[in-house]
């Protein structure tokens, strides 16, 4: 199990009771996801997966895939998650349509970036919904336009629970179907999520309640939460967190005021050579969460080599890179603690399915807790509609 | 040439005079870089480059490489920029030491993450400074420890001007040597930078002066500057900007107060499905810079396909993906303008060497201008030393 440690003092409110009410009122359904049974589609033959989806339809899958990929020998997933013409063209050259399974994910069923890329794929590879229907899987809301299209052409389809929004959907079919098909053990991911979820609802996760209470009460002073993750494998997890935090907590509250906590993603030790100076001497307007992996397992030794003139670096010889990275995280944390910044630390025991499943539900529950204390609707995103309207006006 | 457009009103101070003083007093030397002659090393035989460097030693090179890579057929550069054991091990499997040129970059010459990775490379590939010296290039300050090591083993070396810090060094040997060796036309990059630099010092870039004045005067209200770049090719440019902005502008000012502007990186249209909600309804504590590429040139058409039930997406058929991305940027900008946020827009005519050279010097000059108005030292980073000291205490 992961370790969660607050390095600041805080009182706490009973957010668990608030979230129980949300659960009972069916305001969101993500609390149920770790307990679901996911039935996989019948065995299909394919070498690689092409996942077409943007935002909540791909960020979570990508977070888990990147975290586990180099450790597990899963199938490659190509992500078509941004309709950039240069990378899209490059992707088209890399994909072999004969040996690929295409998974199209859109909650509404009509996401512009996703449907346009799908159309371009059909055209470029000369694929046909009628004759190639076994190469497709559609994941969408029941009765969405995409669901109806799937029915028409007998395309395999999976549903997203109506009351689970994109950014909370990774543990639903949205993430679990592609990950299972790629070869990951989704049961272990769900187990990790279940483990923490139960403890939270039993009110055993006091650190989470304190952190949520502190961040909600002091959001005007500590406007930004930095997630400083010491592993390249967590870079896509940080992107998932950026969406979860920003899209959930940037809202108009019940009194009509704009509130919001801004997420910031850093990767260590790399960003000690970048953003750290701002944390060390800039204004104290941020909280910082240090996230690290205690044991990288297949680690590499820093060899016992002395190079002339570079003897000052020899103190680290004989350590592993994983140990160095962890020591750097601890030293940086200690240096920032002197400034009285609200800092907390999350330590994953190692890179595995349970630790990432647990981490996901931890951040989801934290987000819901902060949202409920801010008296906002954590689960909608009304602010993004305006731009879509203008786009249609300008083009249509 | 790029287009720079402010969508808010502001007075401006004559920052050009302030920067001229910095130039005369030799406080920073980056203003001279676009005019330098870079002499390349004698022709070497190699297929790929391995660049070992962190922070300012790699971010700028990576920004330009990622921007141009799919368009130009340059050699592959492997970046060892973060000592993460999992990705490092994976990289070791990808690198063929026999056909690789190893470029080691460290301004101080003793950067821990860089030297440890270099030692591990020597060990893993059984390389030897004496016998394989032609496979190495070292880039560092003159008389640094690394420079002395290079002299000892007759390794090709290049210098970084003493008064050019890492984050302002991409147009020095730090970026230009690896990029030239990879096959990029560095003259065109420097030409773009020169073009804008001259105009700036001729006081023709009023928009930059206004933007700098506004951001410096209102930093407590608009604490964050979001760079919203509508192209995957700009993702590493955004990371370079994060370092430039954060490490330069997070400082203690001449009155002893902590000041600082926080950089945030977004990629569009992807992050319209993520962070946009926070911009649209959250607190107005950010300025937003929209960055887009007017013409992607080798673009892809959205085919004229109608899918049953998905007719609502047909309004965009016949456009290119590049056009769609640009229209989305414009629509999002328009939707945020209604909130009276300080927004500006940068449009690159296309993906080429001049546009990225110009963009780099634009952001460097903007950073220097804001820094001088905030009365801070834009060019040092004293705050990062504390963590390094603690690391040595804990380990040494």
Tally the beta strands of chain A. 12
Please give the largest β-sheet of chain A.
5 strands, mixed
Global structural class of chain A = alpha/beta
CATH architecture title of the largest domain in chain A: 3-Layer(aba) Sandwich
Describe the protein in words:
Two copies of one chain form a homodimer. By secondary structure, chain A is α/β, with parallel strands linked by helices. The first copy, chain A, has two domains: 3-21 and 188-373, Rossmann fold; 28-184, 3-Layer(aba) Sandwich (Rossmann fold). Chain A has helices spanning 15-24, 59-68, 85-94, 112-124, 145-152, 173-182, 186-201, 206-217, 235-249, 276-281, 321-337, 353-373, 385-395; strands at residues 3-6, 48-52, 77-80, 100-105, 136-140, 156-159, 224-229, 251-252, 258-259, 262-267, 286-293, 343-348. A five-stranded mixed β-sheet of chain A has the order 1-12-11-7-10, with helices on both faces. The longest helix of chain A is centred in the last third of the chain and has 21 residues, at 353-373. The N and C termini of chain A lie far apart (52 Å). The model of chain A has no long low-confidence stretch (mean pLDDT 97). At the A-B interface, helix 3, helix 4, helix 5, helix 9 and strand 8 of A face helix 3, helix 4, helix 5, helix 9 and strand 8 of B.
Give a summary of the structure in a few sentences.
Chain A has 396 residues and is α/β, with parallel strands linked by helices.
Core attributes:
alpha/beta; Rossmann fold; globular; 13 helices; homodimer; 396 residues
């Amino acid at each position: 199990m992961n370790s969660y440690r607050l390095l600041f003092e805080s009182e706490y409110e009973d957010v668990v009771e608030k979230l129980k009410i949300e659960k009972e009122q069916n305001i969101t359904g993500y609390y149920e996801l770790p307990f679901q049974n996911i039935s996989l589609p019948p065995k299909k033959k394919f070498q690689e997966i092409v996942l077409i989806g943007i935002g909540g339809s791909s960020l979570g899958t990508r977070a888990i895939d990147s975290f586990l990929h180099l450790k597990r020998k899963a199938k490659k997933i190509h992500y078509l998650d941004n309709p950039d013409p240069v990378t899209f063209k490059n992707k088209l050259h890399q994909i072999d349509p004969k040996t690929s399974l295409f998974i199209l994910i859109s909650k509404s069923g009509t996401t512009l970036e996703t449907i346009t890329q799908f159309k371009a794929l059909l055209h470029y590879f000369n694929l046909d919904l009628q004759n190639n229907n076994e190469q497709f899987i559609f994941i969408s809301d029941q009765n969405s336009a995409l669901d109806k299209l799937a029915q028409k052409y007998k395309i395999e389809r999976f549903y997203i629970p109506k009351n689970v929004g994109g950014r909370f959907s990774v543990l639903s079919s949205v993430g679990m179907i592609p990950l299972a098909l790629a070869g990951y053990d989704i049961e272990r991911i769900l187990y990790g999520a279940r483990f923490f979820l139960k403890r939270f609802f039993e009110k055993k996760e006091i650190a989470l309640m304190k952190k949520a209470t502190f961040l909600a009460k002091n959001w005007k002073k500590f406007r930004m939460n930095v997630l400083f993750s010491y592993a390249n494998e967590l870079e896509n997890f940080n992107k998932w967190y950026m969406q979860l935090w920003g899209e959930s907590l940037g809202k108009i509250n019940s009194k009509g005021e704009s509130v919001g906590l801004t997420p910031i993603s850093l990767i260590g030790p790399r960003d000690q050579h970048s953003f750290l100076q701002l944390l060390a001497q800039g204004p104290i307007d941020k909280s910082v969460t240090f996230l690290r992996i205690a044991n990288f397992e297949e680690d590499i030794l820093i060899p016992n080599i002395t190079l002339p003139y570079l003897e000052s670096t020899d103190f680290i010889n004989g350590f592993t890179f994983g140990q160095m990275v962890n020591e750097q995280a601890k030293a940086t944390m200690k240096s920032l603690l002197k400034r009285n910044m609200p800092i907390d630390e999350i330590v994953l025991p190692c890179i595995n399915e349970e630790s990432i499943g647990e981490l996901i539900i931890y951040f989801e529950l934290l987000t819901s807790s902060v949202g409920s204390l801010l008296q906002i609707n954590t689960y909608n995103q009304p602010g993004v509609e305006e731009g879509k309207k203008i786009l249609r006006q300008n083009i249509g």
